Amino acid sequence: MNIGEAAARSGVSAKMVRHYESLGLLPAVARTDAGYRQYGEREVHTLRFIRRARDLGFSMAEIAGLLALWQKPDRASGDVKRIAEAHIADLDRRIDEMTAMKRTLETLVHCCHGDHRPDCPILDGLAEAGGPPQA
Amino acid sequence: MNIGEAAARSGVSAKMVRHYESLGLLPAVARTDAGYRQYGEREVHTLRFIRRARDLGFSMAEIAGLLALWQKPDRASGDVKRIAEAHIADLDRRIDEMTAMKRTLETLVHCCHGDHRPDCPILDGLAEAGGPPQA
DNA sequence: GCTTGACCTTGCCATCATGGGAAGGTCGAC
DNA sequence: GTCGACCTTCCCATGATGGCAAGGTCAAGC
After folding, report:
1. B31 pairs with which residues across the strands?
2. Do you know which PROSITE patterns this protein is assigned to (chains A, B) (predicted)?
3. Which DSSP letter does residue B63 get?
4. So what's the ipTM on this one?
5. How far does B26 lie from chain A, in Å, by closest CA?
């Protein structure tokens, strides 16, 4: 199977398949005489694993760790769980950050008439809300 | 005032001050004979505006729009409000995405013993959860 | 056999906001 | 005069992905 088919069957673009190979996430597969990469079910399976991990927001470095554990028969599930929990904590942190931004913006938006007049609490909020962070 | 002081007083790095100038967010200021940029209170104020907008997650393009409105006496507050509301919607979308990731992960983590044994529902979930997206 | 179109190859550039570092000029204090 | 702190410009890197270009390959149809 050529890269295009492996890509279609895994839901990863051909470009990304090559990229993952260059990152070492995917082993370098055999080539035809013309240099075409040849894939099998095994690689498609790995690509799907990578795609699902990406869909859950894992970084490439975390995925590399998960892949290594996945392919290691004597892994400890605790190691997997640790990676997943760290990622959940990271998601939590980012969700909190964005929620705080959203709350502040909603307050400002709520105060803004949003009409043809120039007065705008949103701009006032951006312009007046205190000096540098640690000063 | 040199760039270092303007940076310190606005909470933006000197590097970013130059970058904002190159993007056109900040006007090119006067220079000393030696080529040092000279800033005044006005520029520090603008830099603080930019920093606060960044802190609220606005992109540079959105900040450019906000700055233009801020500096335009005959603006319509409705234009400002539209930018802010679009950004809130964007934050909402991203928060929802991450929350969905988090929920899925929490389900998997909840099922994982997290001990020294290799069996791991997290890896199983990544490996088995269906084929390509639109197939 | 030749053409055509779909596919493959590598490699470079772009995103977005930011930091790091190099190489060199300037300024103030001692 | 020297030293350290500051400034200048320019290039490179991030992380995951897309786009494009130039060129090779393959299968199908004529």
Report:
1. B37
2. HTH_MERR_1, HTH_MERR_2
3. H
4. 0.87
5. 15
Q: What is the spatial distance, in angstroms and rounded to an integer, between the CA atom of B34 and the C1' atom of C27?
A: 10
Tokens of B130: 């269906």
Give, for all 135 residues of chain B, the pLDDT tens digit.
Answer: 999 999 999 999 999 999 999 999 999 999 999 999 999 999 999 999 999 999 999 999 999 999 999 999 999 999 999 999 999 999 999 999 999 999 999 999 999 999 999 999 999 999 986 666 654
DSSP letter assigned to residue A37: B
Class level of CATH domain A1-75: mainly alpha
- Strand D reaches within 7 A of the B5 CB: yes
Q: Please give residues of chain B from 69 to 108 whose alpha-adjacent beta carbon (CB) lies under 7 Å from any atom of strand D.
A: none
Residues 25-44 of B with CB under 7 A from strand D: 31, 35-37
Instruction: Report the alpha-carbon angle B129-B132-B135, nearest 5.
Output: 115
- b vs e for A50-76, b when ≥16 Cβ sit within 10 Å of the residue's Cβ? bbbbbbbbbeeebbbbbbebbeeeebb
Q: Do B126 and A55 touch (CB under 8 A)?
A: no
- CA(B37)–C1'(D6) in Å? 12
B114/A77 touch (CB, cutoff 8 Å), yes or no = yes
Contact at 8 Å (CB) between A67 and B105?
no
Q: Using CB atoms within 10 A of its CB, is residue B124 exposed (0-12), middle (13-18) or buried (19+)?
A: middle
The reply to whether A77 Cβ lies less than 7 angstroms from strand D is no
